[in-house]
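note to self: dont lose this again. the chain is below, predicted strucutre after it. 214 aa total, dont forget to put it in the shared folder this time
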Amino acid sequence: MDRQGKGRPRGFDEAQAIDSAMRVFWEKSYEGATMAELTQATGLNRSSIHAAFGSKEGLFLKVVKRYWEGPLRYIPEALAEPTLPRVVEALIRGAVNFLSTPGNPKGCLAIHGALVCGTNGERVMQTMAAWRKTTENMIKKRIQQGQREGELRGEVNAADYARYIAATMNGLGVQALNGANRAELTRLADMALHFLERSSFDPGGRRKEFAQAN
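---
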C-alpha cells in the first residue's frame, strides 16, 4: 500500500480498515488483540493507525460503533416489530441467527470484547458496559410500551423483564463462544421463549403465541 511517510496512507479506506479490525477484536477481544495483528489485518502500520484513529483504543471505539450498525442491526430491527411477543422472539431468535452465521467469529464482541482489561483499558470497559446498559434500556422502553398497550401483565417488572431478555441474549453469546452450534442455540431459544410466553403474557384471551420460526 502506498503510504505518506508515517501519516495516513494514500487511498486510505477507513470503513474497510474498521471492518478488518472488527474481526480481530471480535476474535481476540480488546486486550487480546495485538498491534501486530491489527496492522496485518488493516494493512496500516502503527503510525498510520495512530494517525487515523489516535490509538488502539480509538480504533476499538470505532469498531464498536460499526459493530452496532452492522452485525447487531437485528436489535433495532427487532424492537420495531409491531407486537411485544414478536419483539421478544425477534431479539432472541435474531441472536441465534447472528451467533450462528457462517464465517462470523464465535461469540459476541459486546460480551467478551472488553471483559478482561487492565487499567489501561478502563475506558473501554466502561464504554462497553454503558453500551450493554443502553441496549437493555432500549428493550425496557419497548416492554413498557407493550405493557401500556395491554400486551404484558401489569405486575411484570419491565426492568427485570428487560434484564432477563438481555441475559438470555448474552448467555447465547457465551454458549456460542463455547462452541454451541445453531441447533443447540435454537433449542435454548425455544426454552427461553416458552418460559417467557407462559409467565408473562395474559392467558385470559390477551395471550399472544410466539411463532415457531427457525
